[in-house]
Amino acid sequence: MTDPNPPFSGQPGTGADDLLVRARLVLNKLCLPDGSALGGSGRLSGVVMTGERLSATIAIAPDEASDFADLRAQAEAALRALSAGALVVLTADRGAPQLKPASKPPVLPGVGHVIAVASGKGGVGKSTTCVNLALGLRSLGLTVGILDADIHGPSLPTLLGLHGRPRVGPDRKLIPMQAFGLKAMSMGLLVDVETAMVWRGPMVMSAITQMIADVDWGQLDVLLVDMPPGTGDAQLAIAQGTPLAGAVIVSTPQDLALIDARRGIQMFRKVNVPILGIVENMAHFLCPDCGARHDIFGSGGAQAEAVRLGVPYLGAVPLTMDLRAASDAGRPVVAHAPDGDLGRIYVSMATALWSGLSTNDRAARNVSTPSQPLTKSQGKPT
């Protein structure tokens, strides 16, 4: 009768490889003291052939040596059936002392509050609202920055009249550009105006992460994040990777926009980001010729939605020719006409937004009470 496991002669080649495979199979079937198989336990290692001797290592704890003596003898006997020599070693390795994982540096350490301005749908005037809310907060004496997180359709350079490229600081971080007393960063400042960002989700998420972590935002009371439309990877990257104090939802009064606004609200609630308020944009159109009001997109839809959802209603912004012209020209209405009808609306909404942040949270973040008004010299691009 042929021996199913003939002794190995020790000659190198395919036979040696086969023998090591057979040795592992045999050892894997052996049982640990608790009855479980040695294979898959993670204890078996170092099955090697040296000359004519097979050797293996079984890892144990320092107090397990006596319990594993029988297993060691069984393993050596199994290997001896395959080769002229066998050695099984029990290693009572106490292991290197475990080091505590290095703590990650805090995200945006100098920023008091990070607020997302979102819509869930494009074309509702979110970016215009974000810029004018930022200037409204600035008029309260706060230090404010804006991050344009819409990689595919950046609007911030146009809205703030920004040109050129951000500089790189000594720590290799980008230095935000400034306009009207605001710090600003956008993908639109890093590429040519007509460059199409044909990027998939992972690249978009990476770019957003870099604009958050690799930009020297310095000390800010508030950083507004102009969110891209939708509820996909980019939105989750910001919501989960940034310490958001809350979100502002921008919508027109019409049902079509409100459907997507509801989705945006639900997304933030799923990641435990509070809704700080809803803005009804393009609430009505004011005719520049006769002054008549026209409810092009309906009326009061966003306000009714805020009541239904139990979230603050920050206010309504009409659609006017002046607002459109100021945005296209890079001269936001709050910057050049803060005391005008539109300017007062945005400042009022910014005041309500700031007041909505709890006093306890403000104290915990060590954010000072605003006291410095926006001066005329701070209302010009730099």
Offer a concise description of the structure.
The chain is of the alpha/beta class. The chain contains 12 helices and 14 strands.
Explain what you see.
By secondary structure, this protein is of the alpha/beta class. The protein has two domains: 14-91; 111-379, Rossmann fold. 33% of the residues lie in helices and 21% in strands. β8 (177-179) and β9 (182-186) form a beta hairpin. The longest helix is centred in the last third of the chain and has 16 residues, at 255-270. It is elongated. The N and C termini lie far apart (94 Å). Mean pLDDT is 80; it is low at 1-14, 94-102 and 368-382.
Key attributes of the depicted protein:
single chain, 382 residues, alpha/beta, 14 strands, 21% strand, disordered N terminus
What topology does this entry show?
Blueprint: H1 14-28, E1 44-50, E2 53-59, H2 69-80, E3 85-91, E4 111-118, H3 126-139, E5 144-148, H4 156-160, E6 167-168, E7 174-175, E8 177-179, E9 182-186, H5 201-213, E10 220-226, H6 233-241, E11 244-251, H7 255-270, E12 275-286, E13 293-294, H8 301-309, E14 313-319, H9 321-328, H10 333-336, H11 341-356, H12 359-364
Parallel strand pairs: 2-3, 4-10, 4-11, 5-9, 5-10, 11-12, 12-14
Antiparallel strand pairs: 1-2, 6-7, 8-9, 12-13
